[in-house]
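Input chain follows. Return structure tokens only.
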Amino acid sequence: MRAKRDFARMQLPPQRVYTPQAMLKRAALALIAAMFLCSDGVSAQASKQGISLDEAVSRAQKQYRARVVRTEVRGEDGRRIYVLRLLSDDGRVWTVRIDAASGRET
């Protein structure tokens, strides 16, 4: 036979009460963690400067008279690098790396 428990006498663990400041700190930490997890290793400031991927593709196609068939964005040493694979009319394939902040080929 099971022993009966007296639930009226049981003590519950104390409930946490968070102050508005503590809740704001938790929300800020969660936001920072989400930004860190979503970033690709490139600072937010670097992503706002320089040229866009579309602009890099347009410049490369004009400069090399070839079609960009693949793009990739990499973060290297705190910089955003666009890696473009080009295909010429005669079938040659090569890769071009462009620094997003300066727009220069690396």
